Amino acid sequence: MTLQATVTIAPNGRLVIPAAMRESLGFQAGGKMIARLEDGVLILETVEAALRRVRAMVRQYVPEGVNLADELIAERHAAAQHE
Prior knowledge:
- With 83 residues, this protein is of the alpha+beta class.
- It has three helices and two strands.
- It has one domain.
């Protein structure tokens, strides 16, 4: 589903996200959002959505079931034994 609207930036810099878009995205009053500028496009997302996106990016490099903290501790122990 595609939603599109023309919005106006108020003199104080505020921008009102149309109700249908807020509802569709699950944005709630007082909720926290992440705003980022990517190639000239303003992207707003919930903190939860940003975490999901970042976790998906990390999964590309870290296999499922691998605990990076455990691996780092094991590396430190091995380095300490060699000293």
